[in-house]
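Listing 4. Sequential folding, example run.
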Amino acid sequence: MIHPLCQSLIETASPRLQDIQHSFDAYQQACFVERSAEFFALELCGEAGELANLVKKRWKGSEISQDRVAEEAADVLIALMNFCNASKVDLGTAVAAKLAQIKPSK
């Protein structure tokens, strides 16, 4: 049985993610050269690595601004959207299906 809060999240997030993904696709197609899914997979890994590196530095005691973390998190989302579009992955549907499988831990 799906937790009611999870069900609400699924019903809310899935269509919104689909709309956002379509908007990213339109922007990417209008403003940038076409790239392969493999390119965007590598870009996603690179951006996630940059985010992780900032978090690691922060964890070790360096002062890393929230703005820098937010900028890298935004890069990760953009790369993920581009990868999903290039791969023909409907992220809203995929997230909804994954959320339905997750078992709450408390």
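-- end of first protein; second protein begins --
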Amino acid sequence: MNQGYERRMHRVLDYIHDNPAGDLSLDALADVAAMSRYHWHRVFHAITGETAAQAVRRLRMHWASVALVHGKDPLAKVARSVGYANLASFNRAFTEAFAMSPTVFRNQGHLRPFSPNHPPEVIPMYPIDVRDFPARRLAAMPHTGPYHEINRAFEKLSATMAARGLFAQAGLMVAAYYDDPSAVALADLRSHAGFEIKTDVVLDAPLEEVILPAGRHAVLTYTGPYAGLPAAYDQLYAIWLPQSGEDPADSPPFEIYLNSPMDTAPEALITEICVPLR
């Protein structure tokens, strides 16, 4: 598939992420792609594996889950921020996606980042072990901004790799995170969205090569919606690491995604958080 289609896909995906509350109908996205709606639907599905409507709904539910756990806006405001003017419709869509209402989801204390005021019973405890990993080569795209928005880079990366027929030579989905969100402004956080890729595959722009070095790693296995990942990091860094006697190495933490939100319910998503050790 030529790069013209890649550019159209990137343009549409940027538009979706920039306009979560806007008109993201098939007709509107076809206009952004500058393609007939009769063909655009087939092109989008062929490249991404989802219909445009499925992708929009999945992304809106992800954005809503993050807002519910990490923000304090009323439900009606959260609903409007992801394109639902009707709160009842938002409640139905969210409950279908997460198997619980937005209110119940928000009240799950184990999804919230750790703080000294957490009651002990809601501090999340996930399995952690130490493993030796080989070096990993990633085909990646950079992301700058809040880490929970890295799905923008993953969507564009996936579209690029599908358009170039690279998935047959790719492995697991991996993200590397370079900055501490408690010390760096959210807008300036740097990360890479990537897929493991064979060493002999040539990576042309906008794809970038990222090498994650071999060595020992602390690995926390988190199961659940991505909105709960910051709480899992807090367990690893604030509880396990100080008690372990281990020192982190001078390379970035990364996440390995063992399944995909495209075909897996949020409560069944499995993410390995990997911290390199000396």
